[in-house]
Amino acid sequence: MLVVGEAPGAEEDQRGEPFVGRAGELLDQMLSAIGLDRRRVYVANVLKCRPPDNRNPAAEEVEACTPFLQRQIALLQPAAILALGSFAGRSLLGGEGKVGALRGRVHRCGEADVVVSYHPAYLLRAPQEKLRAWEDLCRLQDVLGAKERLRGTG
Q: Of the four, 3, 46, 119, 153, which is 20 to 30 A from 83 by CA?
């Protein structure tokens, strides 16, 4: 299982690990709600370093970092990927689109199923979207359950 976010924030950059602080705590709660322990989930970002002034990543930055993310995916060979936010979704799936247009279904990235959802930092600012994020987590749980059943029969 792989979780992909956008880029390190100030606290992540300082500590050298993704999803810390309030957004990291919410991510931990989200994963726990579907029976996943964050210590058993690989967490990465599209960008490997923090954009200046915490601005949105530029297209050339995403393009420069995408090979590193692709290599992480190739090495990990995750059964499923949870893409958090539009930058993660677009980086994995290509094209344009906001989270609202990408969520609600299961996509493919190589051999992995991809579920796109809202970034925990966004959910902290827009708690009214938590129900939709819960739907996405349930979809991810279904994907993981189906993969587990397939592995058990093989």
A: 153
**How many domains does the structure of the chain reveal?**
1
Instruction: For CA atoms 57, 106, 29, 2, give the dihedral sign.
Output: negative
**Which residue in the block uniquely carries the two structure tokens 């949870």?**
82
How long a stretch of residues is the chain? 154
Tokens representing residue 125 in the block: 């600012």
**Given this model, what pLDDT does residue 34 score?**
96
Helix axes 130-153, 21-33, angle to 10 degrees: 50
Rounded distance between C-alpha atoms, residue 32 and residue 55, angstroms: 30
> 42 is in which domain, residue-wise?
2-153
Name beta bridge partners: 2.
42, 81
Assess whether pLDDT exceeds 70 at residue 154: no
With 0-12 / 13-18 / 19 or more C-beta atoms within 10 angstroms meaning exposed / middle / buried, residue 59 is: exposed
- Rg (C-alpha) for the chain, rounded Å, is 15
Residue type for position 15: R
